[in-house]
Amino acid sequence: MPKLNFKHANAIYLHLPFCSSKCPYCDFYSVQYTKKGVGQYWAALFMELEDLAAKTENKLVKTIYFGGGTPSLIEPNLIKDIIKKIKNKFKVTPTAEITMEINPASVSEEKIINFKRAGINRLSIGIQSFNNQHLSFLGRKTNSLQNKKILKLVANNFKNYSVDLIFALPDQSLEDFEKDLKELLDFFPPHISLYNLEIHENTPFYQKYNQGKLKLPTEELDAQMYKLALNKLKQAGYQHYEISNFSQKGYRAQHNYIYWLYQPYLALGPGASGFDGNCRYQNLSNLNYYLDYYNPQRLDYYDLDDYNLEKLKKIDCLRDHKKNKIRNITCLKPKEKWGEYSFLALRTDLGLFYHKFYQKFGLEFKSIYKEEIAELKALDLLKENNERIKLTTRGKEVANEVFLKFL
Ligand code: SF4
Q1: How far is the CA of 204 from the centre of ligand 1 (A)?
Q2: pLDDT tens, residue by residue, 99-114
Q3: 73 C-alpha to ligand 1 centroid (Å)
Q4: pLDDT, tens only, 35-89
Q5: CA R_g for the chain
Q6: Residue with the nearest Cα to atom 2 of ligand 1?
Q7: Yes or no: is domain 6-260 CATH 3.40.50.740?
Q8: Which string of DSSP letters, residue by residue, matches 243-268?
Q9: Taking CB atoms and a 6 Å cutoff, what residues make up the pocket around ligand 1?
Q10: Distance 63 CA to ligand 1 centre (A)
Q11: Ligand 1 centre and the CA of 20: distance in Å?
Q12: How large is the greatest C-alpha to C-alpha distance in the chain, in angstroms?
């Protein structure tokens, strides 16, 4: 089994795998929220931080991201404690972006304020839609009014926040989506992420889809919606800086940039995926395995006085585990690294700089992908100048097909 070795930390992703119910389209790993489950998980999370800190040379951290699951179900005090712990083990820059995903169904004004006090400086809100019928179809536990109320509270308390919207839903017309966009733009959020509905295996939607009970819009309508969004958001002054992401000036997502720039990052929690610069790893998507590994005594964080590292260390999970396995590690071959680097760079409006590719791999990008570049340029999917190559507007519409050429 290869071993992880982080030359740089850069970013930390923490997966908080608790939800109050399961949305039928979602394939992220999550379990039912219980206070006891969170208590045991928190003790384990502290230990994984110890473990990964020991594997990291340069401990500078520029971004922290709490994803899920539904991180907003977690008590702000616990968030405060884990941020303190991260700062204790790593060198977090004073301007670090610290993001938390929130679900409008599980936050109040008090919680929003307390997350800010805990150290969160950016929120990512899973609004998904302002249409009650669509929200109910997606299994969301909020309605349009509640979504707007939470959005307003967030805007009043956070300068930096992002909103997620899903489009290309069954029975959604172009006009429906235009209305969603309009209602969103009334708030003029600093950052917007747009995703079309994807059907993932092992979800209730997948079963329905296979039984012919769920019909997605045609590819043509899906493309029309995406184009509509590009136009509306451009008119409103947003920069379309990545396939699915739009921002006002100065509000690009710093955490995601670390992924797109092919830099290492740490990821903690069951189901979380990280990268040490050479190997990708994925923690097993099973909370019990995770607890067996990092908290075999099932200590409850709520029972530990404040933060008591010595007591936690008695869990003795930092030795080599011979029997238990916590993660799969895949070390990449050079060709795989070139491909990943290329498609991640091409996702952004900066594109791929030839000199950076050379600095990273000691090879000329244009020589490796000579035929692919010629083919994609002839199809008007890529454009280049002396220093870099980027997707064209057409290329953005069929980005996944372009990326496949490099993988
Ligand atoms: S979409 Fe979010 S809230 Fe819904 S099940 Fe997935 S992680 Fe939980």
Answers
A1: 13
A2: 999 999 999 999 999 9
A3: 11
A4: 999 999 999 999 999 999 999 999 999 999 999 999 999 999 999 999 999 999 9
A5: 22
A6: 69
A7: no
A8: TTEEE-TT---HHHHHHHTT--BEEE
A9: 19, 22-23, 26, 28, 30, 68-70, 103
A10: 23
A11: 9
A12: 65
Task: State the closest ligand 1 atom to the C-alpha of 19, by its place in the atom list counted from 1.
Answer: 8
Instruction: Report the first-to-last Cα separation within the chain, whole angstroms.
Output: 25
What is the whole-number distance in angstroms between the Cα of residue 345 and the centre of ligand 1?
A: 28
Please give the backbone phi and psi of residue 230, each rounded to the nearest 5 degrees, phi first: -55, -45
334-404 sits in which CATH class? mainly alpha
Which residue has the CA at smallest separation from atom 4 of ligand 1? 23
Q: Where are the domains of the chain?
A: 6-260, 334-404
| Residue 7 token pair | 């030359």
For residues 350 and 388, is the Cβ–Cβ distance under 8 A?
yes
How far is the CA of 221 from the CAs of 74, 164, 196, 227, 310, in angstroms? Answer: 38, 20, 11, 10, 58
- pTM of the predicted protein model: 0.95
Q: Round to whole Å and give the CA distance between 210 and 384.
A: 42
